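Minutes, project check-in
Item: structure for the 275-residue chain
Input as provided by the requester:
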Amino acid sequence: MHGQSTEDQDKRLAAWHWLGQSVDAAARHLSFTRAADELAVTPAAVGQQIRALEDVMGVVLFRRTPKGLELTPEAENGLDALRAGFLQFEESVRAMQAGQSSKALTIAAPRDFTAKWLAPRLAAYGRSDPETRFSIVSTDVLPEFTEANLDLAVILAEGPGNHEGLRLSDGAMVTVAAAEGGGDTLIGWPGSASDDASTLRVSDAGLAIDAAANGFGRARVPMLLAQSDIDAGRVRALDNAAPGDLAYWLVAPLPQWRQKKVKALVEALSEGLSA
């Protein structure tokens, strides 16, 4: 995982807030010393903040005179707008952070992955935090996060692509059949090696597992999806699980991945995963 941590973000926001306070206090008092007293810092610290802003803007805000500090004409003309800008920025940040603190999560995932693996874990997570609300978008193709208003997505791929991500399995595949009996019919699904040669074709691995459980034949499917049915005795493994080329990944762009609600869910879903 890459990118800035929430702690880094908080530090940047605090620095911006401190800069705005320094400018406002210095402008009201026309004194770095009195501004520093108000802010409980040193005059040098206030001066550094002012000079940093002047460097960024390319404008001198204060001029030293025998009587003390004076606002330059440029500062007098733009001070109200500058104060309003700092205030509006802080209000915008608070509004966005309030949105992040909501307990609503929109997740895109393949239908079979939701049914076989994700839904039981979301239910358990919801019981531990009853205020959480989930919206599931069923798709095998990764949507555009912004257009779909997604917080998190699940993909079956070689890696997370351009997003931040957590691998949920090693991509192991296993052949399953009914707990008792079951024919030799190959059950294929898009993405399975036997799809073209199969006698019975279904739309996803979850339906392939269900077909095998009902005695239609055997299917080679991701172990991650079949494990609960094997444990429950609905199907049996006909061979040892073998690593595959693709694995299930939790993914999101960096801004979504940093959200506290997403980080909390990813941490919960990662519990019990094999290294």
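Outcome recorded: The mean pLDDT is 85.
No further action items on this chain.
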